[in-house]
Amino acid sequence: MIWKQRTDWKPEDVVKQQLRLNHGTWAELQRHGVNDDTQVRLDFFYDAPDDESAEALARFLWKETDYEVRRDERRVSGTTLETTVSQEILDDWVIWMVLAGHENGRCKFDGWGTQIP
Questions:
Q1: 108 within 8 A of 5, measured Cβ to Cβ
Q2: Which of 19, 22, 26, 110 could bridge to 45 as Cys pair (CB 3.0-4.6 Å)?
Q3: Global pTM?
Q4: Alpha-carbon torsion 33, 35, 37, 43, what sign?
Q5: What is the rounded (10 degree) CA torsion for 71, 75, 76, 82?
């Protein structure tokens, strides 16, 4: 059987889920010494319905950001430059990333992570 991504997801549902996850992740980062002045790089991940969609999102991210962007047939991933973060910055960024994926190939934002400095 060939794996096929569900295409009936709604961006508002992904935003809600990711914002919920952000709160726990931010609290955990703070427990490890990260604060509003700490520089981190954010790694991000998307699932794409097909190669064309992955290419559309990768092109958009290359054009609109300074992120390192990688893609293959069904995934787009990458890393931001070092930046400071806060709960509010992370929430705004996640909303932008979810909508960027949805509007550029219907790629579903699958989350983010970082290494603690």
A1: yes
A2: 110
A3: 0.91
A4: positive
A5: -110
- Of 73, 75, 57, 53, nearest in space to 65 by CA: 57
For strand 68-71 and strand 75-79, is the pairing parallel, antiparallel, or unpaired? antiparallel
12 vs 61: CA distance, rounded Å: 20
Residue 10 token pair: 């709604």
Amino acid at the residue 13: D
d(CA 26, CA 103): 27
- Domain residue spans of the chain: 14-30+37-42+53-114
Return mean pLDDT, the chain: 94
Residue 101: per-residue pLDDT: 98
